[in-house]
Amino acid sequence: MKRKIIKINADKCNGCGLCASACHEGAIGLTNGKAILLREDYCDGLGDCLPACPAGAITFEEREASGYVRSQSAPGFPIQMKLVTALSPRFAGAHLLIAADCCAHMYANFYTEFIRGRTVVIGCPKLDGTDYSVKLAEIISGGGIKSVTVARMEVPCCGGIEYAASEALRASGKSLLLSVVTFAADGKIKTNYEKSSLIFKFL
Fold it and tell me: Which of 58, 135, 139, 189 has the fewest CB atoms within 10 Å, measured from its CB?
C-alpha cells in the first residue's frame, strides 16, 4: 500500500536520539550513531519525531510501505482518565502509570523515563473535578496490574491524584508498591519514593 512515512537523512543526522524518544511507536532507533527507521509498519505517519529533530534530518515521503501496526510498546489510547474503560485489555498485566497532565510538559524525558514500557492514564484533579479512585480501583482489581507509578507536580492540587491512587490500591486489596515521582516547578524531579499498599489496608 502507498502511504506517508518518515525518511531519515543520515548525512544530516547528528545522533542525538531525540527522534527516538519522541516516537511513541518505537519505530526509530540508533545504529552506529545514526537514527534509523527500525520498522516501517510501526511508523504511524503522524510525525511526532519531526519537531524533535534539531538537525532537520527527518522528512515525510509517500511510498509503498507495509500497513501501520500499533507496536506493543505504544501506550494505547484513549489515555484521559475520564475516557478510559476500566476493563480494557490494554491493562492486562500492565505496569500502570497514573500521571498528572502537566508532568509531560515539564520534564523533557518524560516519555523515555516514565511512559515507555508502561500503560498510561492521565488526568487533572483540579480541572476534571471527579474522584479517580473508583475507576482506578477497577483498573487495578480487574487488569492484573503488575505495578503502579504516580507522576505528579509539587503543587497542592496534584495531591489529589496521589490520594486517588492510594485509595484505589486500598480498595483493590492488591499487595503492590505505589511509586510516587514528584516534579518541581523548574522541571526537575523533586522526590521519588515508594509506599506499600499493605499499609493502606489497615488505615
Answer: 189
Query: Fold for domain 2-64?
Result: Alpha-Beta Plaits (3.30.70)
Element (H, E) at 128: helix 125-128
Q: Which residue has the cell 509517500?
A: 62
- Give 28's strand partners: 37
pTM, whole model, 2 decimals? 0.61
User: Is residue 171 within 8 Å of residue 201, measured between CB atoms?
Assistant: no
* Ordered strands of the 119-123 beta sheet: 119-123, 95-100, 147-153, 177-183, 189-196
The Cα-based distances of 131 to 10, 104, 119, 160, 177 in angstroms read: 49, 22, 20, 9, 21
Fold annotation for 89-200 = Rossmann fold (3.40.50)
Give, in order, the Cα–Cα distances in Å from 83 to each of 10, 132, 161, 173: 40, 11, 16, 24
Summarised one tens digit per residue, pLDDT across range 86-138 is 877 788 888 999 999 999 898 988 988 898 888 999 999 888 888 899 999 99
